[in-house]
Amino acid sequence: MGSPVSFPASGFNGVCAVRHGRLDSARRTKPSSRTNPRPMLKKLLGSMRPPKGASAVEENDAGARLLAANRKQEALASFERAVAADSAFAPAWANFGVTLWQLRRGDEAVAKFRRALELDPENADIRVNLGEGLALNGDYGQAIEVLDDALRRNPADTRAHAAIIRPLLEVCAWDAVERETRLLVKAWQRDPGGEWLKRFQAHTTLFLRLPPALQRDIAVRNARAIAERARQLPKPPVTPEPAAGRRLRIGYVSGDFRDHATAHLTAGLFERHDRDRFEVFGYSFGRDDGSDYRKRIATAFDHFVDAQDEPLHETAGRISRDGIHVLVDLMGYTGRARPEIFALRPAPVQVCYLGYPTTTGAEFIDYFIGDRITIPDDDRQWFTERVVRLPESYQVNDDRQTIAEGVPERASEGLPAGAFVFCSFNRHLKIERPVFEIWMRVLDAVPGSVLWLLAGAGERTLRDAAAAQGIDPNRLMFAPHARKPSHLARHRLADLFLDTQHVNAHTTASDALWAGLPLLTVTGQGFSARVAASLLHAVGLADLVTETLEDYERKAIELARSPERLAALRTRLASNRTNAPLFDTAATTRALERAYERMWATAAAGRVPEAFDVD
After folding, report:
1. How many domains does the chain divide into?
2. Residue 130: how many CA atoms within 13 Å on its side-chain side?
């Protein structure tokens, strides 16, 4: 039978086969060898193509295998032939949609999901695919409606519960998020080893307040699913032994070598590597957006490879043939990550750094890089990787990042001229009810003040929540998207940045500090809740780190009422910005290089990876 592909909500390019179009959620069967391509391991992937004149089922199954190998255009052709052979075959329409989404053709993808659901309205997996497609396309309201419908039909549908979390977070639907969080925790307590955990994407659940053991278990289940997909692909050749005296080869892997937060942080790192000791490779599988960031990064590497349309096993083979000693994953499970490349083990040492703020749960990742604040001693237990801690903040920054000249007028941003401007440019999904309630009490305590937020899907919810606390919703201002130099410059219109707690500002925090805007944070549980504290310590503003929500609220009000204290903080930040460790790109690069050399020395000596702190 043909198999619809589960839509990769986390952005993974791997896919998971389920039953055919008339899925009975109460009764699943083991996939046949035809839908499970493990027998293809020792054959060329070209042999996955169906015979000429194949049926819709054969074309669909071949397309699923090609898509799992990241051969998207060939997969698309297979699904086109499948629907041409049988226009009523729902699984092919669903898989057609998955492929279109991965080709960044979101509207077309959603249309294909809708067609699949029209043909098979009782298929729970296709309904969830549609909901996830709508969410990934930014249509959060419709996504919630579709996924709510799936849960009304079957309240035990784990995929629907997992899928609805992200759109609920995006629109700040706090009651529903808290309900889903309770359900997930209770289900885990009943069945802590359940395979169903892999349905919950590790990146999305970072935004939920979960026990750290549960967060780690979800990561482990996700990693095992990735490893299983990778086992269905040809293995890369064995990495050649390095020649004596050869420079250490470092490979960086990302889909975000473009105008993106990762590129904003790392461009200087790639430029500053010591070329006498290191040969640096960049493997890109994201789109070329033509931006200055893309051009700068492409030229910063000794070797830059655009692997966007390359099959997963071919990228892994390329990395292995390049003789990479230390392979660095800058994505984890974010965006359009391709963790299957790492699961194929193309390099002897594999590292997670910067792009993902918690454990990957993966046996194929050896090290995780943090610092002493983001990963204190007691938190090592929540990482499956060996923890490596840099001497200052883990976060590299680019000390050449451009800020548009001059200070824009407040009127140009719709801000009142004489008001005290609190600012929080975190995405709406990071905003939690307790912190937002504090912000409203702070506004109440500072007459005439306003809160400047980023524009986003949660605007209506946030305005309603402000009104419910007796705050004029018009005191919430929303900033539209702006190009990075202009975005940095407009920080100068604000007086104080108020951080979120469970997931802090990360790149967003370093942006504020680089632009000269003091930031107040409150530490929480886990790496993602301690990032801003790490940055503030590294820029000499540790006195803006609070430990409780009560202290955070009190200090925000005190600073707003004390212009002289705030001015002193700005002066200190302006001075430290050019000499503190946070923005010393060269020093952070040297620390990373010492870490890579020790990782490689351990591997070259035949020892197992070990945790260590970089001096």
Report:
1. 3
2. 27
